[in-house]
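Field log, afternoon session.

UNIT: design team B
ACTIVITY: writing a sequence onto a fixed backbone
BACKBONE:
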């Protein structure tokens, strides 16, 4: 009996020593086929996949003249859109709803396949709205249909497909691939919304239905076309804060010449990727402190209110440096005939560094750099009317950030407030501080501009 249990015991021991087996990463699926429309000579075609739940672009690829394409996609539900753009013709566009399981291979699809009409009753949509989750370090941009026109009929029609070409260049370019950016679908978002409305109908199993949670657009990429001096189509692309409407960074301008339309546009798209890679989400860090000093000869009080705008310095890291100083100083002497005069509050730098700690948390490290102590001079009267007036004595301490902290703490991705205190004292005399450090998301800016 003992011999029969030995192999089992050995197997159990090996299993314990081996530890848990890591969960395998789900394999991506493949969705491949043809556009189902012609790609004429001199035209450019592309295909892109829109995540139905988030409204973001998961993949975008150029398509050859054969119309054949292949996309690697994670398991999910998508709207796949194919576009053909050529001078002198309106852009042709086809689309198809797609559901892929992990590792599924669909290789003979046609985006122009006849779609089955879904029988459903008309009802008010009841999908879950955007839920407020944050992804630090990733800027979401939306590329909008271009505006403007041209007296040249070919260029006037070409304008309608320029946003499609730019989407492909940005999703497949540095902004998305190297700089961690996200591209939000604008032109075809309505297709994703229609599918989500159907997902809430009685015809869809509640356990498998998608819930809407669209990524909100941070930056709107806007294109404007006009006739170029000397011929061709001038294209100007600007970047706008989607929440405030304020311009961000520098616009990019180029000219499309009739014989080199797509080559010229590729050069513009490259510069757009370069500008988008400079974008950073911003964290505003506000320091609010009240301080007082109490001493045998005098007392003082003051406040610090300083703000920094931390921008991205690398993957998962933000930093800013700026000035702080004591303000609103009050002071009084406890020594008869020796008033305090001429307060001095030096301006010193302070910094903040924020890093992504994972798990929905940010590490925040802050602190002043240098001696921020505010001081005043004590000016005593002469002992007698015939005695010389002694000169003021500078350097009487009023307030200072001493032992003020914590200098490192954590807040959620959505921001938060940390209480801070500081004290250096002896028998009731010394420095006493209290206040807060508040961290909150504050829009988008060009990286590297993080001052106060």
């Amino acid at each position: 009996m003992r011999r029969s249990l030995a192999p089992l015991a050995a197997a159990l021991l090996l299993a314990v020593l081996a530890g848990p087996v890591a969960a395998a990463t789900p394999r991506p699926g493949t969705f491949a086929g043809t556009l189902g429309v012609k790609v004429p000579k001199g035209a450019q075609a592309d295909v892109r996949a829109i995540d139905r739940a988030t409204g973001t672009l998961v993949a975008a690829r150029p398509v050859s003249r054969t119309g054949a394409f292949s996309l690697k996609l994670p398991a999910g539900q998508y709207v796949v859109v194919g576009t053909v753009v050529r001078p002198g013709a309106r852009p042709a566009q086809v689309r198809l709803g797609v559901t892929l399981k992990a590792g599924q291979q669909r290789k003979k699809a046609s985006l122009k396949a006849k779609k089955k009409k879904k029988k459903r009753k008309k009802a008010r949509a009841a999908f879950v709205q955007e839920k407020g989750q944050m992804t630090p370090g990733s800027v979401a941009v939306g590329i909008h249909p271009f505006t403007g026109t041209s007296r040249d009929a070919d260029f006037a029609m070409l304008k309608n497909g320029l946003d499609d070409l730019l989407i492909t260049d940005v999703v497949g370019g540095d902004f998305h691939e190297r700089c961690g950016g996200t591209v939000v679908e604008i032109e075809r978002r309505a297709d994703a919304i229609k599918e989500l409305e159907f997902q809430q109908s009685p015809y869809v199993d509640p356990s498998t239905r998608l819930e809407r949670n669209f990524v909100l657009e941070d930056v709107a990429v806007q294109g404007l076309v006009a006739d170029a001096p000397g011929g061709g189509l001038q294209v100007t692309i600007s970047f706008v804060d989607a929440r405030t409407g304020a311009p961000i960074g520098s616009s990019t301008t180029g000219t499309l010449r009739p014989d080199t339309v797509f080559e010229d546009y590729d050069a513009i798209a490259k510069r757009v990727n370069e500008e988008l890679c400079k974008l950073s989400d911003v964290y505003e860090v506000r320091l609010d402190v009240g301080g007082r000093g109490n001493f045998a000869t005098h007392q003082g009080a003051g406040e610090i209110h300083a703000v920094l705008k931390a921008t991205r310095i690398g993957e998962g890291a933000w930093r800013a440096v700026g000035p702080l100083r004591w303000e609103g100083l009050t002071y009084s002497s406890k020594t008869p005939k020796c008033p305090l005069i001429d307060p001095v509050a030096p301006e010193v730098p302070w910094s903040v560094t924020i890093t992504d700690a994972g798990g929905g948390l940010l590490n925040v490290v802050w602190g002043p750099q240098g001696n921020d102590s505010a001081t005043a001079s004590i000016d005593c009267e002469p002992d007698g009317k015939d005695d010389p007036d002694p000169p003021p004595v500078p350097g009487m301490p009023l307030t200072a950030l001493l032992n003020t902290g914590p200098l490192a703490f954590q807040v959620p991705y959505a921001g938060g407030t940390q209480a801070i205190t500081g004290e250096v004292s002896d028998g009731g005399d010394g420095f006493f501080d209290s206040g807060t450090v508040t961290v909150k998301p504050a829009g988008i800016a060009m990286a590297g501009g993080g001052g106060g």
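LOG NOTE: Residues 153-171 form the longest helix (19 residues).
NEXT ACTIVITY: expression trials, pending approval
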